[in-house]
Amino acid sequence: MNMKSDSSHQRWDELDHQLLHALENDGRAPFSRIAAHLGVSDQTIARRYRRLVADIGLRVVVVTDAERLGQTWVLRLRCAPDAADALSKALARRPDTAWIALTSGGTEVVCAIRFRTRGEHEEMILGKLPKTPSIMEIRAHQVLWRFFGGSNSWLAKRLPQVAEAFPAGPEPTSPAPEPISTEDEPLVATLEENGRATLAELRRATGHSESVVRHRLDRLLASGALYIDVQYDQTILGDTTRAILWITAAPAALDQVGRALATHPEVTFAGATAGSCNLMAFIVCRDSTTMYRYLSTTLGSLEGIQHIETAPVLRLVKQLTYDEHAPAAQ
């Protein structure tokens, strides 16, 4: 995953931001529809899209919503400093890891894993990881509820002016996600690699007609079993400082604090967790001074918070996908 994090963010203009927002709202929208909403030509959108792919690692992928199924766990693995890099890369090669970061002076690997079954998470947390010599401590947090993240558009919070340029996609309409069957796996696997794969490409991958593929994909998206996610280097906006917050809130204030976090422009993910804390959030800020102001004022003013642990992210190793031959994300 090739992500560049220099001062070149100033070259990106409003149209780039609007295109990213449009993709966050509907990652499979045809360029013609995006162009029509933004008042430019199809060719302009295609050209801008290719530039964003090349320069900031833009990728559109379809993701199984394991958090809605209660099957996402965030693991905090404390290890020796000289082992953290190798451990993070080994975990990044696993297809079930969603994102991985190095924090706390390079001695902690934080990893989100999407398990499909109860047996899988027990095997990993109780079996494989404790047998890894370099791991000195394991803290496991199950994500119980997502307040912000997934298909939500972070850019619309960060740049409210872009929110009116392209309408938000429909919310899931079913009370429970549509089960993903064995027959769906070729469809899902193809979209995990390229969320904008054409119907013709999906027909070849699945062996089903384009109408069948379209109907099945629409059902999975509408039920919330799948969602479309957009991956790119958020330093395009000049936000170069990242941190993971481990928050303990009074039980009666848990939902209120989580919903407040979801509105903060700095927050790219917020969820309720089971474990040593009951909330976690991933934040991005312009610099350390901005982060201090956020922690001491915006977050500090929320009633019900009892404790906050701030873990600065030294390096983002994986964000949905991982290329071991590409430079690590900074």
Automatic annotation (TrEMBL):
SUPFAM superfamilies referenced in this protein's UniProt entry, alphabetically: Dimeric alpha+beta barrel, Winged helix' DNA-binding domain
Q: Which residues cross the membrane?
A: none
* GO cellular component term, pick one: cytosol
Tell me, what's a Pfam family for it? AsnC_trans_reg
Please report the stretch or stretches of sequence annotated as the HTH asnC-type domain: 13-72
What GO molecular-function term can you cite, just one?
sequence-specific DNA binding
Alphabetically ordered keywords of this record: DNA-binding, Transcription, Transcription regulation
Q: Which Gene3D superfamilies match?
A: 3.30.70.920, Winged helix-like DNA-binding domain superfamily/Winged helix DNA-binding domain (1.10.10.10)
**Superkingdom field:** Bacteria
SMART domains according to UniProt: HTH_ASNC
Alphabetical GO biological process terms: response to amino acid
- What is this protein called in UniProt? AsnC family transcriptional regulator
Q: What species is given as this protein's source?
A: Streptomyces scopuliridis RB72
Lineage of the species this protein comes from: Bacteria, Bacillati, Actinomycetota, Actinomycetes, Kitasatosporales
